[in-house]
Amino acid sequence: MTSAVRGRTTKSESFQRLKESALALFSSRGYDGTSLRDIANGADVPLSLINRYFGRKEQLFHEIQSKIWRSLNRERDDALAKARGTMHRNPDLDEIIRIFARPVVALAFASAEGRAAIRLIRERRAFIVHHDLDLRIEWNTARQLWMGLLVAACPELSRTHAVWAFSFVIDTVYSSHLLDDWLDDIMPKSPCLSVDEVTELIVTFCTAGIRALALKCMNH
Q1: Under 8 Å CB-to-CB from 165, ≥6 apart: which residues?
Q2: Which PROSITE patterns match (predicted)?
Q3: Which whole number is the average pLDDT over 16-39?
C-alpha cells in the first residue's frame, strides 16, 4: 500500500515535503547539525532525490532560505518605497527601524512555520560568515542599504558606532523570545501583544539605544 501511494506522489509534492523537512530541521538544528539523510527521512523521499536536484547540502540550504529572505526584503522594499514619499531630507529613524522589523514580527506571529522560517534567516548569517560563499555578495547589498539609511537617519553616529548599532538592531529584531518563546514561563498571563505592539516595542528599544549612542558620539 505504501509503495502504491509513493508511486502516485508527484514531483511537486515530493519537493514540497522536502522543503518542509529541510525548513524544520535547519531551523531547529542549524546548518551544521542537519544531515541530508535526516532531511530525506523527514520528507519520506529517497536521498537520491536531494542529490539529483540540489547536490550538496549548502545548495539545498540556499534554495530554502533565499526564498524566505527575498520575500522579507520585498516587503521591506515596498514599505520603504512608500515611506520615501513622505520622508524629509533625512529618513526618520523610527520609520526605518519599523520597516526593517515589522515583516519579521509578522511572519513570526503568523504560524510555527513562520517562526521556523525566521530562525532559518537567523542561521543564514552564521552560514554566510563561516562558509564564505557567494551569498555574502547578496547579503552585502542589503546590509549596505540599511546601514546607509541608519547613518542618514542618525548622522551623529560614527561609522564604528553605526556598525555596532546595526548589529544590535539585527539581534533585537531576530530576538530569541520572538522566535523561540524561551521566556514564556516567566511572561505574565495577560493577553498576548499584537504584531504592531511588538513591532513598536522593538522600535522604541532600538531607537532609544541608537540615539544614546549618537549622543555619546557628539559628546566626544
Answers
A1: 150, 154, 157, 209, 210, 213
A2: HTH_TETR_2 (PS50977)
A3: 87
